[in-house]
Backbone:
């Protein structure tokens, strides 16, 4: 059982890695803490947040903690290489548009582009496109999918002249400068992208 | 070496006026670099060390990745202008070895299992060398890791103990290292009560060794407090908006 005074002391306490917070009988380890020989200790710099409902103690980090994609996340990526059945995509930001401090490799297989048969990648993607994708696993290289409606190309440039392209039909884009028409697997959110 | 030629201890004071159990003036600043995920600048007297941490990130050499944890890579390097005589900027045998011992001093505190198949890269640049660069490096690197938000079991701090003119002295500098009888760098993670780096150059009796270790422990305790203070000052004094 935890004393009220201890709870008061813990709430909003300054934490740096290694400081002892409580014992596991008082609070279970939550986020950004770890347990060592029955003692719960801080693992990052931040403010202590005990939670009586879940009986867990966590830390609200004050430093920028590592950002990595995880299974189920929607991410933004840049198409870097296209093979016949595989595209290599650099994942650079999460769904919020906040850039990862380091980019990660994503692999997009041709069966994950859309329902139905896709003859080759050149009908659905081009190098330099920005795509919105969903992550399917938890470690690098990340497998990704763009099968959903809101997933797919969100920004593309003309392969002939390099100008930005406008949505033409549901699966085609028109170049603003040269008028060329190209096929893509488009996201319904085409051109709606904010990355910072 | 010029044994006995230089008087290192006179009237209980050392050549720079310190007592035997006194640290050099230490300054610590955290978050000094913009591009790095975490960085720290640590000064032990005239020794000045810059540490930068990147990651967890995907390395170019994928074969070094481990399936169960992040690999920690460490590069200790002395700038060519850091010493009295120009130092070749290529990694020397000594620097490669120090990179390894510093990495091993940090590995026990990093909770690397949280980031499998990634690498955490620690770059240490010695800007000015005046003895105790490896211990200052460990101190700086652990702060840089904390600033990078990498989960750690605790901070690590390092300090060297030496034997000069027959006396044990804390935090020895270049001159004392050169003309002294022994040099023992120690790095400790005080919250874990673990010694993560221990080297000994020279000769100490078993009794002296125990004494030296106790001296180092006290020194590390002081530096550890300063590390915590530096992090709190930078990240916890300002009101965090909800």
Residues:
């Amino acid at each position: 059982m935890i004393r009220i005074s201890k709870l008061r002391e813990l709430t909003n306490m300054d934490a740096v890695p290694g400081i002892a917070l409580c014992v596991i009988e008082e609070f279970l380890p939550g986020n950004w803490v770890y347990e060592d020989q029955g003692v719960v200790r801080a693992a990052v710099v931040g403010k202590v947040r005990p939670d009586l409902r879940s009986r867990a103690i966590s830390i609200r980090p004050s430093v920028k903690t590592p950002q990595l994609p995880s299974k189920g996340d929607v991410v933004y990526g840049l198409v870097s290489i296209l093979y016949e059945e595989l595209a290599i995509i650099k994942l650079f930001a999460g769904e919020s548009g906040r850039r990862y401090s380091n980019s990660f490799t994503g692999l997009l297989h041709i069966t994950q582009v859309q329902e139905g048969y896709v003859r080759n990648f050149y009908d659905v993607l081009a190098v330099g496109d920005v795509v919105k994708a969903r992550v399917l696993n938890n470690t690098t290289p990340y497998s990704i999918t763009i099968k959903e409606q809101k997933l797919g190309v969100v920004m593309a440039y003309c392969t002939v002249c390099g100008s930005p392209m406008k949505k033409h039909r549901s699966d085609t884009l028109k170049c603003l400068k040269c008028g060329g028409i190209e096929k893509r697997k488009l996201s319904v959110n085409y051109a709606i992208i904010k990355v910072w | 070496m010029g044994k006995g030629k230089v008087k290192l201890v006179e009237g209980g004071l050392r050549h720079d006026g310190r007592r035997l159990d006194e640290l050099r003036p230490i300054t610590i600043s955290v978050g000094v670099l913009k591009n790095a995920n975490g960085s720290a600048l640590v000064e032990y007297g005239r020794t000045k060390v810059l540490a930068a941490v990147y990651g967890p990130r995907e390395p170019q050499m994928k074969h070094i990745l481990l399936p169960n944890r992040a690999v920690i890579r460490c590069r200790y390097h002395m700038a060519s202008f850091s010493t009295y005589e120009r130092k070749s900027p290529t990694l020397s045998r000594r620097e490669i070895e120090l990179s390894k011992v510093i990495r091993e001093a940090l590995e026990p505190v990093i909770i690397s299992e949280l980031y499998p198949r990634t690498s955490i890269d620690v770059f240490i640049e010695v800007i000015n060398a005046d003895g105790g660069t490896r211990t200052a490096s460990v101190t700086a690197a652990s702060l840089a890791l904390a600033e990078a938000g990498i989960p750690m079991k605790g901070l690590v701090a390092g300090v060297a103990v030496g034997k000069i003119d027959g006396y044990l002295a804390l935090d020895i500098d270049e001159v004392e290292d050169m003309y002294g009888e022994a040099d023992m760098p120690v790095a400790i993670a005080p919250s874990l009560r673990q010694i993560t780096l221990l080297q000994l150059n020279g000769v100490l009796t078993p009794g002296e060794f125990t004494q030296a270790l106790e001296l180092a422990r006290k020194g590390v305790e002081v530096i550890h407090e300063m590390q915590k203070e530096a992090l709190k000052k930078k990240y916890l004094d300002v009101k965090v908006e909800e």
About this structure: The helical segments of chain A are 4-10. The two ends of chain A are 45 Å apart (CA to CA). Chain A has a mean pLDDT of 90.
